[in-house]
TrEMBL record:
<dbReference type="GO" id="GO:0004185">
    <property type="term" value="F:serine-type carboxypeptidase activity"/>
</dbReference>
<dbReference type="InterPro" id="IPR029058">
    <property type="entry name" value="AB_hydrolase_fold"/>
</dbReference>
<protein>
    <recommendedName>
        <fullName>Carboxypeptidase</fullName>
        <ecNumber>3.4.16.-</ecNumber>
    </recommendedName>
</protein>
<dbReference type="InterPro" id="IPR018202">
    <property type="entry name" value="Ser_caboxypep_ser_AS"/>
</dbReference>
<dbReference type="Pfam" id="PF00450">
    <property type="entry name" value="Peptidase_S10"/>
</dbReference>
<dbReference type="GO" id="GO:0006508">
    <property type="term" value="P:proteolysis"/>
</dbReference>
<keyword id="KW-0645">Protease</keyword>
<comment type="similarity">
    <text>Belongs to the peptidase S10 family.</text>
</comment>
<keyword id="KW-0121">Carboxypeptidase</keyword>
<keyword id="KW-0378">Hydrolase</keyword>
<dbReference type="InterPro" id="IPR001563">
    <property type="entry name" value="Peptidase_S10"/>
</dbReference>
Amino acid sequence: MIYNFVNKLDYSTNLTLSLTRQPLLPMYAPVVPTVPRMKADKIGELPGLTFKPNFHHHAGYLRASPGNYLHYWFVESQNNPQTDPLVLWLTGGPGCSSLGALLTENGPFHPNPDGSTLFENVYSWNKTASDIYLALKDFFTVYPQFSTNDFIVTGESYGGVYVPTLTRLLIQKIQVWSTILDLLF
């Protein structure tokens, strides 16, 4: 009614109201600190861990394509992460999570029988290599310091299909990219 009075409209005119959500005005938006993804994904404490790791590990999501993300867990080498090979582990399935391999096979920690704590795997692959579990495409954007390390793709079960398929694609992309670089320089 007040709106109609102020705008000199007939009092029987309905007020138009939109319930569509509007973006928050920038001056009222919360300040979001910009933290590099590598730092944001770093795991500081892992609940239930019964030892202090002598390596860094990170987990989060890497962009596979616009709107599609892959979960990853990156475990740096305990030896020399700057020069040790980088290993991408692909578990079978299809659809089987590589977290199973991380936590029960070749990762740096295994669950204790109590189901709530983890113990050190003294035979972990990250004793001599840095391990990536489940993601690749966006990895070198976040971790460019590993781009010159040797790169190994391996896996188990249906990974016997994923590994050669991915490796073939990587080789093709590298060859195409090398050709493009040769043409540009």
